[in-house]
Amino acid sequence: MKKYLVLLLFFIQMSFYAQKKEAVKPNSIIFGEITAGLGFKNTGSGIVSLHYQHEKSLFSYRFSRLRKSKLFITSLFPIVPAYYTPLIKIKAKEYAFLYGRRFVENDFSYSFSGGVSYTKSTNIPKIYPVFTDFYMGFPFEINIKWFKSEKRSIMLFGLIPITKPTGFGSSLGVKLFGNLSKQSYIGIGVTFGLGYYKNYRGQ
């Protein structure tokens, strides 16, 4: 009986040790975000991205849907100043992998990233045949975001706690983004995200 009691006490002690070790184990920094943006040269963008951070290194996957309009002005006659303006709409899907550096303060972070992308672009003009183009590019982005500074419970309706204090939470930020390619663009947008934005160990 004494032998089993010692064994039971041993397992209880190991359980407490495992819980304590788990409590201080650092969480992974991983988060997803969506961005609604407007670019120069009449470009509208919707972006979905996933990010993983190891130390200061930031690895990202970005999917973007782009809409762009081109307005052409053409002289009908060499002398008479009469013009015709066909509007060409461009719809594109961009797939990008980026690497960068991310720096975290208390409830604030900023990052810089660049990488490689593959884009499928479809031109839909009013008077010309529809055509599709494929090309590579150099995507880039600069992010600034704000998130909670410490572990907190997730609140239902902002009033009722429904979880234990957790590092999982939301963020709000600003993204400057673009791509150097056959159809280069640059834009700025508002970002909303969910995930783990910093190491909450010890909180």
Mind sketching the topology for me?
Elements: H1 2-24, E1 29-39, E2 43-54, E3 57-71, E4 74-75, E5 83-84, E6 87-104, E7 108-125, E8 131-147, E9 155-156, E10 160-161, E11 169-181, E12 185-195
What can you tell me about this protein's structure?
By secondary structure, the protein is mainly beta. It has one helix at 2-24, and strands spanning 29-39, 43-54, 57-71, 74-75, 83-84, 87-104, 108-125, 131-147, 155-156, 160-161, 169-181, 185-195.
Structure described in brief:
With 203 residues, the chain is mainly beta. It has one helix at residues 2-24, and strands at 29-39, 43-54, 57-71, 74-75, 83-84, 87-104, 108-125, 131-147, 155-156, 160-161, 169-181, 185-195. The strands form 3 sheets. Strands 1-2-3-6-7-8-11-12 form an 8-stranded antiparallel barrel.
